[in-house]
Each structure stands twice: as C-alpha cells, then as structure tokens.
C-alpha cells in the first residue's frame, strides 16, 4: 500500500545483512544530516534485547535507552549481555555499535510473572478518550501515523497543567521547525500513534519493538512548544506493567519542566485496552544543524 492516510508503507527502516543492520533512507534523523533518529536507535536496541532474552513469562518492566551520541546513518551492530539473572528477574544490557564505536546503549529489567496479592492495591483508572478509530486521520508523516485527541474531547486531569505567561506562544524566528503537526496545546496534549513501517525488512512488529521504536516520541510530546521543538533528548526510560495488546499507542503528555536549557518530561502510555506504563525523558536545548 502507499503512504496515504491510514496506510502502511512496505519500506522498512533497516535491512538486516548478516550481523549488521543497514539503515534505509526512511531512518534519517531530525537534528543532523546523515544521522539516525533516536527512535530508530531505541527500536534496534529493543529488537536485540528481545531476540536474546525475551520470554513469554518475562515482562520487560523497564527499558532505559541512553543516546550517547548521534548515531550515524551507517551499518550498525547490536551486542547484548546479561548483567544479573535470578529466579524473579533478569537484567540485560545492549550496545549499539557503529564501526567499533558504541553510540547508544540500553538496559532492560525483565520481571517474571506471578500473581497479584489477595488484597490488591487499587489501580489508577484508564484515560477516557476517543478510540483512534473515531478520530480523523492526519497526513502520513513518513515515520508514523498520528491521530491527535482534540482539546474538547480530552480527559480532564486532576492536577491542571498550568503554563507560564508566554509559554507556547508563536515561536521566534530562531526556533527549530516542528515535528508533531497539529497537536493540541500543552495543557491538552494527547495523541494516538501507530507505526506505518516495519523496523527491519521482512519482520513484523512485536508488542515490545512497537514500544521501543515509539518511546522516543515522548520527547517531542513533552518538549515541543506550539510551533517548534528546541530540545533534543539524551535518553528515554519506559516503565511497563504489561506489553501493549494493540498496534495503536496512546501518549498522554503529563509534565515538562526546564531551566537553563535542561528539561525533563513525562508521558503516560496507553493502548486501546487501557494503561500500559510511563515514559520519562531528559533533554537539552538544541539548534538543528
């Protein structure tokens, strides 16, 4: 199928060649020419970890990706190792290597499934927003399909997300171009996201690789003004109590705080069945090269 509204592209982000992953043109980064976007880095690291250690009774409860440097748009390798393995947990690490140089790393904490206590702790409610199938498609942005949740249909938060005077106003002439498209204002920023391309040619997404590939989206969600993105994230950490059961992932932007060019952000992660976990990101002010 083509790249129109609501369709899936057959062009993958990488082609697997022996023990190397060769980027295609679709995997280009935003910040600098001939580099990879952070989400493609996360996707490859997640794929390597899942191939080595994924198991049906292990929940990847935490995935932390460190974006050590901008990964080149060049053949890449993934090396993995176990840090700690016990009866109830497995902690593993992956490194993304370009020409012998480690450009990113990740660690994943797997927890073995068991049973909830007899006296369960009350669970936080799911968000109450429209299904992605009830929202209008947006133009394909090449990497994913985004369906923003309109401000008048969003869920009201118990803690209002206040904004400072002038925050979110029209960007200055020095601002970077936006990457999100027509999302809602900061105080009502929620969206459904769906992958429209395979990560690796000939291989279908798994629930874990969907999250690993999409989690970097939390940075522009949390750190974008209404008309620009002026922070580049240095990491992202995903906490999950379960893997997603649907291809649509819901991002609910909860917090952004910044001072002296250093920012942190948080999004809650959902699928069509309910809550999945949270994503936290750290970022620094950045001008596009």
From TrEMBL:
Gene3D superfamilies: Acyl-CoA thioesterase, double hotdog domain
Region feature Disordered, mapped onto this chain: 114-183
Residue ranges annotated for the Acyl-CoA thioesterase-like C-terminal domain, each copy included: 184-279
Acyl-CoA thioesterase-like N-terminal HotDog domain: residues covered: 56-109
Comp. bias (Basic and acidic residues): 140-166
SUPFAM superfamilies: Thioesterase/thiol ester dehydrase-isomerase
InterPro entries, A to Z: ACOT8-like_C, Acyl-CoA_hotdog, HotDog_dom_sf, TesB_ACOT8-like_N
Domain of life: Bacteria
One Pfam family matching this protein: 4HBT_3
Name this polypeptide is given: Thioesterase family protein
Taxonomic source organism: Phenylobacterium conjunctum
Native organism taxonomy: Bacteria, Pseudomonadati, Pseudomonadota, Alphaproteobacteria, Caulobacterales
């Amino acid at each position: 199928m083509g790249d129109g509204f609501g369709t899936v592209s057959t062009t993958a982000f990488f082609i697997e060649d022996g023990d190397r992953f060769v980027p295609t043109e679709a995997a280009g980064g935003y910040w600098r020419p001939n580099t990879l976007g952070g989400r493609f880095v996360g996707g490859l690291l997640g794929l390597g970890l899942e191939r080595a250690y994924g198991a049906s009774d292990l929940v990847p409860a935490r995935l932390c990706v460190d974006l050590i440097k901008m990964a080149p748009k060049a053949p890449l390798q993934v090396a993995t190792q176990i840090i700690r393995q016990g009866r109830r947990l497995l902690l593993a690490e992956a490194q993304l290597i370009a020409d012998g140089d480690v450009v990113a790393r990740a660690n994943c904490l797997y927890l073995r499934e068991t049973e909830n206590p007899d006296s369960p702790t009350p669970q936080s409610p799911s968000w109450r927003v429209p299904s992605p199938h009830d929202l209008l498609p947006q133009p394909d942005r090449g990497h994913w399909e985004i369906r923003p949740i309109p401000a008048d249909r969003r869920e009201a938060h118990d803690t209002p997300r206040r904004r400072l005077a002038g925050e979110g106003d029209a960007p200055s002439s020095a601002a970077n171009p936006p990457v999100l498209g027509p999302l809602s204002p900061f105080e009502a920023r929620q969206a459904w996201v769906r992958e429209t391309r395979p990560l690796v040619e000939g291989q279908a997404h798994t629930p874990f690789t969907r999250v690993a590939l999409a989690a970097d989206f939390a940075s522009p969600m949390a750190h974008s003004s209404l008309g620009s993105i002026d922070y580049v994230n240095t990491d992202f950490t995903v906490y999950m109590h379960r893997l997603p059961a649907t291809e649509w992932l819901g991002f609910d932007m909860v917090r952004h705080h910044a001072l002296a060019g250093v920012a942190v952000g948080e999004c809650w992660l959902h699928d069509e069945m309910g809550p999945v976990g949270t994503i936290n990101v750290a970022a620094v002010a950045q001008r596009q090269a």
